Automatic annotation (TrEMBL):
Residues 227-243 form the Prokaryotic-type class I peptide chain release factors domain. This is Peptide chain release factor 1. SMART domains: PCRF. Residues 53-95 form a coiled coil. Keywords: Coiled coil, Cytoplasm, Methylation, Protein biosynthesis. It comes from the Bacteria. Methylated by PrmC. Methylation increases the termination efficiency of RF1.
Length: 359
């Protein structure tokens, strides 16, 4: 469909919604809320689309006048109008292309972030903890709520696995491109010869599922309680507080083993819902990507996405070939917006390019 035709359809849709909202008595309260949201979502696009078509009309009028008029004064005015309309059209088209990119419905959701130590032994566990703290600080910087769900496999000052729930506006939109293998190159404190070691940690970012997103039948769940195990203490091995939830249709298992059985069950269900929601989204996204091939990298979580080189104070994101030399600031102050912004822009550019090819 031609770009101008898409804009005309949007304006037509917006005006239709406007007409429906002008008489709320004819709409149910549920439909009214849905129509009002759609109307609000289209408002800004409608405004830019209207301006675009107005400028297109002015451009056509100016070109017609240049062809037919014999008066120099009118031709000069038409030439000026043509120049101004062309500039306006270029600017408006770039803005509209971004606005017309199909929105990921999960973008405004919160997220579950899961970090696991990969190859590299204790050094990988230390790096996993470093990443976990980096994202915790990033959440604090953006006034998001960061709730630790579980930390396991404590080694020295590191951990084998850590999970957290991050709540706030646009969390998933900004963190979804962090999924993948993060590699670190540094000299471990235990390395006497000063040799640089390479280790890795994997990051998975899942959109946090809400009840309206996913309905889980109780009959599909097997919930087992068992005794916590740990380093010792009065509580350990005395209460069946740990919870294991198995989603029977998929075989997906989630375990929570902190002191409160009630909290363990709530957290485990939260994680399970998000994992099932992510599986469903992955299935849908694969169908779309098979047709559209619009991705950042492959989107595969096994893909190495970023390298943190401590000796050179360097971070490189391999998907967009972006390198900076502020590693300490990025790690300690969570100054990673330059990567996140660049990845979002790159994703938008690829989708716009695909849309251009489809026209």
């Amino acid at each position: 469909m031609a770009f101008e035709d898409r804009l005309k359809n949007i304006i037509k849709k917006y005006n239709s919604l406007n007409d429906k909202l002008s008489d709320p008595s004819k709409i149910s309260s549920q439909d009214f809320a849905k129509i009002a949201k759609e109307h609000s979502d289209l408002s800004e696009i409608n405004k830019h689309a209207t301006k675009y078509l107005e400028n297109l009309e002015l451009l056509n009028e100016a070109e017609e006048l240049l062809k037919t008029s014999e008066e120099k004064e009118l031709k000069d005015l038409a030439l000026e109008q043509k120049k101004e309309s062309k500039l306006n059209l270029e600017s408006l088209k770039e803005t509209l292309k971004i606005m017309l990119i199909p929105k990921d419905i999960a973008d405004e959701k919160g997220a579950i972030i899961e970090i696991r130590a990969g190859t590299g032994g204790d050094e990988a566990a230390l790096f996993a903890s470093t990443l976990f703290r980096m994202y915790q600080k990033y959440a604090e910087n953006r006034n998001w709520k960061f709730e630790i769900l579980s930390v396991s496999g404590i080694v020295l000052e590191g951990c084998k696995e850590a999970m957290a729930s991050i709540s706030g506006k646009g969390v998933y939109k900004r963190l979804k491109f962090e999924s993948g293998v993060h590699r670190v190159q540094r000299v471990p404190t235990t390395e006497s010869s000063g040799r640089i070691h390479t280790s890795a940690a994997t990051v998975a970012v899942l959109p946090e599922a809400e009840d309206i997103d996913l309905k889980i039948n109780d009959k599909d769940l097997r919930i087992d309680s068992y005794r916590s195990s740990g380093a010792g203490g009065q509580h350990v091995n005395t209460t069946d507080s740990a919870i294991r939830i198995t989603h029977i249709p998929t075989g997906l298992v989630v375990v929570q083993s902190e002191k409160s059985q009630h909290q363990n069950k709530a957290k485990a269900l939260k994680i399970l819902k998000s994992k099932l929601y992510d599986i469903e989204r992955e299935k849908q996204n694969k169908e779309i990507s098979d047709l559209r091939k619009v991705q950042v990298g492959s989107g595969d979580r096994s893909e190495r996405i970023r390298t943190y080189n401590f000796p050179q104070n360097r971070i490189t994101d391999h998907r967009i070939n972006l390198t900076t030399y502020n590693l300490q600031e990025a790690i300690q102050e969570s100054n990673i917006d330059q990567f996140i912004d660049a990845l979002i822009a790159d994703d938008q550019a690829k989708k716009i390019s695909q849309d251009d090819n489809d026209e």
